[in-house]
Amino acid sequence: MMTFSRAITLLLTVMLTTAAVKSEEPNSAPNILLILVDDLRTELGCYGIEEVHTLNIDQFAETALLFERAYCQMAVCRSSRLSFLSGLRPDERRIWANEDVRPSMQDIEFLPAHFRNHDYHTLGFGKIAHGGEEDPRCWSEPHQVPENRLYEYRTRAGRALVKKVKHEAAEAGRPDPFRDLPEKIHRGMPWEILNFPGRDTGDEQLADMALAALERVKEKQFFLAAGFLRPHLPFVAPRQYWELYDEDNLPPPGLVSAPEGSPQLISNRSRELLRQYRGLPTSLPLDPETERKLVHGYYACVSFIDAQIGLLLKGLEENGLADNTIVIVTSDHGFQLGDHGMWGKATNFELSTRVPLLIRVPGSKASGKRTASLVELVGLYPTLCEIAGLTKPKHLQGDSFASLFDDPGALLTGAAFSQYSREGLQVTAFERKISATRNGGTASRASSAIEHCLTTGRTHGRRKTSQRRKTTPSMLSDYPVC
Ligand SMILES: [Ca+2]
């Protein structure tokens, strides 16, 4: 049996061979490519969800270790990202909401900064932290964002609406809703189908920027982070990705209401969707046609990002970097598409807190395998340190799960913790995902623990198989698999 250290030795050997092509001066540690996707559920083909088309990520999963039970620490962008980038749990600096004043974190060495301080050339593109809070200490070059950002409506109607919203805000003396992004301000439509040719959406620009950077820094030892915005609302994607799905046959939510007797505290009240976007009622339920359109738009955006990830991975291959680069694909949290009667994240439900996580360590015997071990995103920092052979900063609060690359069948921990604080109530609720046995448990036992949570109303129910729809080959004929 190959040990993890042997796998790393093999990786370094492969790397030296590749480095001989790259440069006269071989690198001493693997490169890192960190791909973050905003608000991505585990509804991917490689997670067993056949009706969502993610052929590039699925293909990548065949060469990576897939984490079936990875959880964020708080299901909102800023709290989750600052947690796994700092290696601290949200309570440590009270980062409980997107709107909180950011505490000083000058004493914290963030994940990219740690690699930078170990002679990596670090580059960040797009949404790595949240809302312009990228820490300049992280990057060897200035962090870059695409020209076109989150609210990038392109149709005539979409742009007219943006103009109208801006005008209304100015007339009322309110801040520009597309610049300052306060809560409780309606923006544009929650979806848009783009008919424009060319790669000018923010996420396409982001992929192209990262690809160009790969070509430019391939002689260096690099840590490159690319943070895509979709499938975050609004669900704006080119038409070809919308056409991958038949709106009339999209599966409905598995559970459409909150658990009986549950307190209002557990609900996000779908505020992100209802308060920030136009053309929707002020309260639920949505009409079935709107629900289908939203689910359709979300899936279209997932496939759209999958295509961009495929391009990045292809670029890695073409630059001779695949054999000496550790690749991570994950998200800050999940998203509820009407599940439990809620839209958005900001809850402790399974679909908000569980994230896709795939890590490819070249030369690892775990490639193409899956692990049912509970892991926390806050453990990503120490894990990457261990895999890359870096020391771990003392402040880290998460546990490394690097040993799973030696033994994907192990169950490392008995619990993963997620929390959410409700505005005004000053209450933080915790969700503990549990394994049936702390040591030596099996995947089936772990699954049983999830089922137990379901009966107590704490997790999301799976959709009925009969409600799922298979893809027809013609729908995928133009799908850009890289
Ligand atoms: Ca997010």
Task: Give a verbal description of the structure.
- The strands form four sheets. Strands 3-5-1-7-10-2-11 form a seven-stranded mixed β-sheet. Strands 4-6 form a two-stranded parallel sheet.
- Mean pLDDT is 81; it is low at 12-26, 180-186 and 436-482.
- Strand 8 and strand 9 form a beta hairpin.
- The chain contains twelve helices and 13 strands.
- The chain is an alpha/beta fold and 482 residues long.
- The relative contact order is 0.20.
- 29% of the residues lie in helices and 16% in strands.
- The protein folds into two domains: 4-148 and 193-476, Alkaline Phosphatase, subunit A (3-Layer(aba) Sandwich), CATH 3.40.720; 154-187, no CATH class.
- Helix 2 crosses helix 9 (288-318) and helix 6 (202-217) packs parallel to helix 9.
- The structure holds calcium ion.
- Calcium ion binds at residues 38-39, 77, 232, 332-333.
Write the layout of secondary structure elements.
Blueprint: H1 4-22, E1 31-37, H2 55-61, E2 65-71, H3 77-86, H4 111-116, E3 121-126, H5 156-171, E4 191-194, H6 202-217, E5 222-228, E6 235-238, H7 239-242, H8 271-276, H9 288-318, E7 325-331, E8 336-337, E9 343-344, H10 350-353, E10 354-360, E11 370-376, H11 380-388, E12 415-422, E13 427-434, H12 443-455
Parallel strand pairs: 1-5, 1-7, 2-11, 3-5, 4-6
Antiparallel strand pairs: 2-10, 7-10, 8-9, 12-13
The structure holds calcium ion (CA).
Calcium ion binds next to loops.
